[in-house]
Design goal:
This protein has about 325 residues and is α/β, with parallel strands linked by helices. The protein is built from ten helices and nine strands. Helix 5 (about 160-175) runs antiparallel to helix 6 (about 180-205). It starts with a strand and ends with a helix.
């Protein structure tokens, strides 16, 4: 499935990196979810939980519905997790990524429901329209995002992630006004770090031998668009589906034409598809992490460390000067 959009990224001022709050308060244990003396937030998966903890700081008790190492798209909500949502002060999720979460949040009586998809502009990166022979263009677990033609992977663009952070900060201030000043301060610090990360990506990717990279999952459309790159997804929306023979031949030709050296795979799904193409096209393989969860195999302990590792991997694959 092709995702070929080339846009010139807008310049965003870099900022000095600030100390990061860790996600130590983030738990998947329902016993720690509601009725605490803190602002209880249930987040749908890691990128939302990270935002909640960074902005909430010492005032927030953050619980993630998605366990570390669990593929977020496959999440099914249990009765226990529905109880977590009912007991929480706020739910932070990204509508369109996890249909089970969308349904569960919609059915709860929780007062503060923060849909990150409404806090920035989601775009159609072509993940739902065009398919290659042997691909499933409309997989059930992605039906909502395909139906609306919107790519939900906005956290991989530091600029859009910062826009979401600002909206989350305002929602926290409104929901828990006693700590509004601290939420505002934490949000500003996080946005500054994200602006700095954006500057690193801009500088690190502006002068490369090629602008094309191959992935097994069409998760990097926003990142590619922001930094003037082209993402080519082997199998579109389903990261574990086998590429067709026609698709492999097409990518072999493109690899030669565009100087592609590497096929990227990710941490939470099988690397079989990427290695199949790499073997047939005589390419290298490496990890490009979509940051849908942090595990022991992640190249870093939090969002910023993994994004730095992604930048390093892209610079190597694209032949940065």
């Amino acid at each position: 499935m092709n995702v070929r959009r080339r846009l010139i990224p807008a310049a965003v001022a870099s900022a000095l990196g600030l100390g990061t709050l860790t996600l130590t308060a983030c738990s998947s244990d329902s016993a720690a979810t509601g009725n605490t003396d803190k602002f209880d937030v249930v987040a749908s998966f890691y990128p939302m939980a990270f935002l909640a903890q960074q902005i909430g700081g010492d005032h927030a008790n953050v619980t993630s519905l998605t366990e570390p190492g669990q593929e977020p798209h496959d999440l099914e909500i249990s009765t226990k997790q529905r109880a977590q949502l009912e007991e929480a002060d706020a739910a932070l999720y990204l509508k369109g990524l996890q249909p089970a979460v969308d349904e569960a949040v919609g059915q709860t009586g929780i007062k503060t429901k923060i849909d990150a998809a409404t806090l920035t502009h989601l775009e159609d990166h072509g993940t739902g329209g065009h398919s290659h022979e042997g691909e499933e263009a409309h997989s059930e677990e992605h039906s909502d995002e395909e139906e609306h033609g919107r790519d939900p992977h906005v956290w991989l663009d530091p600029v859009k992630y910062a826009e979401i952070a600002q909206g989350v900060g305002k929602a926290f201030e409104k929901a828990d006004p006693d700590h509004a000043a601290d939420y505002k301060k934490n949000t500003e610090a996080l946005v500054k770090r994200l602006n700095g990360l954006n500057g690193e990506f801009e500088n690190g990717l502006k002068d490369t031998k090629t602008k094309v990279f191959f992935t097994n999952h069409a998760a990097f459309g926003y990142l590619a668009e922001r930094y003037g790159l082209t993402q080519e997804a082997i199998s579109g929306l389903d990261p574990e589906s086998e590429p067709s023979g026609a698709r492999v031949r097409e990518l072999q030709q493109e690899a030669k034409a565009d100087g592609v050296t590497t096929v990227f795979y990710e941490t939470l799904v099988s690397d079989k598809t990427a290695k199949t193409l790499a073997r047939d096209a005589h390419l290298k393989t490496d990890v490009l992490d979509p940051l849908e969860g942090i595990t022991d195999t992640s190249r870093g302990d939090d969002y910023f460390q993994v994004m730095e590792a992604n930048l390093k991997a892209l610079r190597t694959a694209l032949g940065a000067k």
